[in-house]
C-alpha cells in the first residue's frame, strides 16, 4: 500500500477578500484531495470559488485559513521565493488567452520556462522541439503566433506548459477561445498527456462537453464543493 502523500490536499481552506460590509468569502471551508495522475474538471457558476481554488493550487494566491499541502508540504509556510520555485518545478499553466509572446517564434515561446530555470541553450532548444512535436506542431517551430491558428496557438501554450515535465497541469478554460472542432482536438491532446505521460490535470471549464473528458468532475457553489463525482470506468 502506497504511503505517498496526495499531490494536493485542502483541509478547511477558506479565502476571503475585503473586510466589514465588503467582505467576500470566495472559499468557505473546502476539503479536497487530488491524487497523482488524476484528470479533474472543476465547474460552477461565476463567483462559485472554482477559479480561486485553482489559483491557490497554482500558488498564485494564498488561503485566508485552513491547510494547503502540496506533496505533503504545507504551502502556507513557504515564502514568496519558495512558492515561485514550487510553481516553476512542479506546475504547468494553460490559459484561455494563450498568453504567447507575439514577436517570438513558437519554439522561443516554449523555451521560456527553461530559460527561467537556467537550462543550457542547446538542451532547452532540444526539449522545446520535442514538446512541440508532442503536441503535433512539427514544422511550425519557427512560426510566430500571428502565423498560427487559434488551435495551433493553444498547442504552443500547452507545449510551453509541459516542456518542464510538470507533475501538475492547471488549465483555465483552455478551449474558451476555440471553435468546437479545435476544442475537441485540444481536449484530446490534454487527455493523452494525462494517460500517456501521467501528468495530473486540473481544468476549470463551464462546458459540459469539455468536462466529459475528465475522470472526475467537481462542482463548486457559493465557495464550497457541492458535488464531487468520479466517472465510472468504461
UniProtKB/TrEMBL annotation:
<comment type="similarity">
    <text>Belongs to the ABC transporter superfamily. Macrolide exporter (TC 3.A.1.122) family.</text>
</comment>
<keyword id="KW-1003">Cell membrane</keyword>
<keyword id="KW-0547">Nucleotide-binding</keyword>
<dbReference type="InterPro" id="IPR003439">
    <property type="entry name" value="ABC_transporter-like_ATP-bd"/>
</dbReference>
<dbReference type="InterPro" id="IPR017911">
    <property type="entry name" value="MacB-like_ATP-bd"/>
</dbReference>
<protein>
    <submittedName>
        <fullName>Macrolide ABC transporter ATP-binding protein</fullName>
    </submittedName>
</protein>
<keyword id="KW-0067">ATP-binding</keyword>
<dbReference type="InterPro" id="IPR003593">
    <property type="entry name" value="AAA+_ATPase"/>
</dbReference>
<dbReference type="InterPro" id="IPR027417">
    <property type="entry name" value="P-loop_NTPase"/>
</dbReference>
<dbReference type="GO" id="GO:0005886">
    <property type="term" value="C:plasma membrane"/>
</dbReference>
<keyword id="KW-0813">Transport</keyword>
<keyword id="KW-0472">Membrane</keyword>
<dbReference type="InterPro" id="IPR017871">
    <property type="entry name" value="ABC_transporter-like_CS"/>
</dbReference>
<keyword id="KW-1278">Translocase</keyword>
<dbReference type="GO" id="GO:0005524">
    <property type="term" value="F:ATP binding"/>
</dbReference>
<dbReference type="GO" id="GO:0022857">
    <property type="term" value="F:transmembrane transporter activity"/>
</dbReference>
<dbReference type="GO" id="GO:0016887">
    <property type="term" value="F:ATP hydrolysis activity"/>
</dbReference>
<dbReference type="Pfam" id="PF00005">
    <property type="entry name" value="ABC_tran"/>
</dbReference>
<dbReference type="InterPro" id="IPR015854">
    <property type="entry name" value="ABC_transpr_LolD-like"/>
</dbReference>
<feature type="domain" description="ABC transporter">
    <location>
        <begin position="8"/>
        <end position="234"/>
    </location>
</feature>
<dbReference type="GO" id="GO:0098796">
    <property type="term" value="C:membrane protein complex"/>
</dbReference>
<keyword id="KW-0997">Cell inner membrane</keyword>
Amino acid at each position: 500500500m502506497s504511503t505517498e502523500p496526495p499531490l494536493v490536499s485542502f483541509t478547511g481552506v477558506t479565502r476571503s477578500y475585503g473586510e466589514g460590509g465588503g467582505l467576500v468569502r470566495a472559499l468557505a471551508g473546502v476539503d479536497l484531495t487530488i491524487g497523482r495522475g488524476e484528470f479533474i474538471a472543476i465547474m460552477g457558476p461565476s463567483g462559485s470559488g472554482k477559479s480561486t481554488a485553482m489559483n491557490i493550487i497554482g500558488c498564485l494566491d494564498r488561503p485566508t485559513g485552513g491547510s494547503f499541502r502540496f506533496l505533503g508540504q504545507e504551502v502556507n509556510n513557504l515564502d514568496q521565493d519558495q512558492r515561485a520555485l514550487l510553481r516553476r518545478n512542479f506546475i504547468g499553466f494553460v490559459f484561455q488567452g494563450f498568453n504567447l509572446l507575439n514577436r517570438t517564434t513558437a519554439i522561443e515561446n516554449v523555451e521560456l520556462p527553461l530559460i527561467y530555470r537556467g537550462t543550457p541553450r542547446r538542451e532547452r532548444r532540444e526539449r522545446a522541439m520535442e514538446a512541440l512535436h508532442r503536441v503535433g506542431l512539427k514544422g511550425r517551430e519557427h512560426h510566430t503566433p500571428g502565423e498560427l491558428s487559434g488551435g495551433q496557438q493553444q498547442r504552443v501554450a500547452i507545449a510551453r506548459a509541459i516542456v518542464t515535465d510538470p507533475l501538475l497541469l492547471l488549465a483555465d478554460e483552455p478551449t474558451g477561445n476555440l471553435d468546437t472542432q479545435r476544442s475537441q482536438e485540444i481536449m484530446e491532446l490534454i487527455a493523452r498527456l494525462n494517460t500517456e505521460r501521467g501528468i495530473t490535470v486540473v481544468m476549470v471549464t463551464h462546458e459540459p462537453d469539455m468536462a466529459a473528458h475528465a475522470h472526475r468532475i467537481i462542482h463548486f457553489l457559493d465557495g464550497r464543493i457541492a458535488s464531487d463525482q468520479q466517472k465510472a470506468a468504461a
